[in-house]
Amino acid sequence: MEAEIKTPTQVNLNDLEAAALQVLRSRATPQPQVVRMADDAALAILRAIGIPRKGRPLTEVIQEMVEKVYYHRAQADHPRFFAFVPGPCSPLSAIGDLLTATYNPHAGNWLESSGPSCIEQQLIRWLADNLGLPQSCGGLFVSGGSMANLTALAVARDQKLQAHERSKGVAYVSEQTHSSVAKGLKIIGFLPDQIRRIKCDSKFQLDMDDLKAAVAEDKMAGRLPFAVIASAGTTNTGSIDPLVNIRSLCDQENLWMHVDGAYGASIALSSRYRYMLRGIETADSVSWDGHKWLFQTYGCGMVMVRDKTHLTASFHTRPEYLRDTETDEGQINFWDIGVELTRPARGLKLWLTLQVVGADAMAAGIEHGFQLARWAQDELKQHPGWEVISSAQLAIVNFRYVSPGWSDSQIDTVNKKIAQRSLQDGYATVLTTVLNGQTVLRVCAIHPDATEDDMRQTICKLTEFAVSESALVNE
């Protein structure tokens, strides 16, 4: 019999231990169906639960949450969840989350979290070293790529534009730049016509000729170009923009170079593939997500700025009620270099994961993703009808099913239906995106536990769906 709860902070330790074990066991084995959407009946049950006046047994509530709440979700940590950029998280990261939540340090300032802040500071330094960024670099953990991009772009604005010049400022993104960049620019005060969209080349990389022409055109028109946002691993194709060439142009034109590496920066940990990021070490700022290819639970993003004093210039305030928290040399108040005042110690779960598995195992997990996409592409070549649109790179491959005589709209429709069939079948989740105006299927495979058989069987399943849908078109 569980102990009665007297206050929200008084819970029996034995009950908590049993509950933690209950949760970990429930998550240990992925369910067969990758995506489980709540139907009307399930939603009606959830909406009817309500909030009780008197408390209920902890194990009963957890069981209800496992079976009725968490059950209805996409298992982004399933080996065959290939949609979006999946989130295969290490159980160690979950333990790190539990530790951080249990001790609940206020990681905004050194006074309240000197231990956690020291570890986060050291981890940012280690990550920056892997990118090749200089000792002058500084940064912090944030909620994800969106906040990382917003933070870096606010610094870019402050460093490159005077307040009275902001209405003339122009930032440059590519057709494949993540949508969070444009959102961040709008939040910090830039209008849509101040965000120039540069076309991509045949490899879905930012086109340098188009970028140069746009910068020249804007300068002639009296505008003030101030930043180029490059991608290191685009969401659609895994493409990496020509970072060295972008740096050269930024130097010539006095522009800030931000690299959105939310997805692809993780390959910096791989000695085998790190060369693909050549030029990222020259960036003025970089964003990076641990909850993508570093196998962390959500809420583990990082932003790094080449000159850490630029972060302080943008975000440090000195209200009188915080005067007792000022730091000495070597200490840090993270609230002085970012948007948040109150913040959790987001980096400790990544630290715990790395301490337990080591950097080599992390690198091997990342490298495995490259092979998974290559296996998928190889299997596509074994079945007539498949057309590879963007070859396997950074664990991503894009393809579509075509048949002679089909119109563009028929091709798009069939590939959408293949994705729908995949979702309904549940073996694997493969969804669509759009490249060059064409609807294509996209596999992003980064789960360390996914196998060659997973990849080949997924393509075989998609082929079955494609043949079935083709028969309907040809009737």
Give a description of the structure.
With 475 residues, the chain is α/β, with parallel strands linked by helices. It folds into two domains: 105-343, Type I PLP-dependent aspartate aminotransferase-like (Major domain) (Aspartate Aminotransferase, domain 2), CATH 3.40.640; 354-474, Aspartate Aminotransferase, domain 1. Helix content is 44%, strand content 13%. The protein has 14 helices and eleven strands. The chain has a seven-stranded mixed β-sheet, sandwiched between helices. The chain has a four-stranded antiparallel β-sheet with strand order 8-9-11-10, covered by helices on one side. Helix 4 (91-103) packs antiparallel against helix 12 and helix 12 (348-380) packs across helix 14 (452-474). The longest helix has 33 residues, at 348-380. It is globular. The termini are far apart. The relative contact order is 0.13. The mean pLDDT is 94.
Task: Record keyword descriptors for this entry.
Aspartate Aminotransferase, domain 1; seven-stranded mixed beta sheet; alpha/beta; 14 helices; globular; Aspartate Aminotransferase, domain 2
How many structural domains are formed by the residues?
A: 2
CATH secondary-structure class of the largest domain: Alpha Beta
Percent of residues in beta strands: 5-15%
CATH topology assignment of the largest domain: Aspartate Aminotransferase, domain 2
Task: Give the topology.
Blueprint: H1 13-28, H2 40-49, H3 58-69, H4 91-103, H5 110-131, E1 138-142, H6 145-160, E2 169-174, H7 179-187, E3 195-198, H8 208-220, E4 224-231, H9 243-253, E5 256-260, E6 285-289, H10 290-293, E7 301-305, H11 308-315, H12 348-380, E8 386-393, E9 396-401, H13 408-425, E10 431-435, E11 438-444, H14 452-474
Parallel strand pairs: 2-3, 2-4, 4-5, 5-6
Antiparallel strand pairs: 1-7, 6-7, 8-9, 9-11, 10-11
Helix pairs in contact: 1-3, 4-12, 6-7, 6-11, 12-14, 13-14
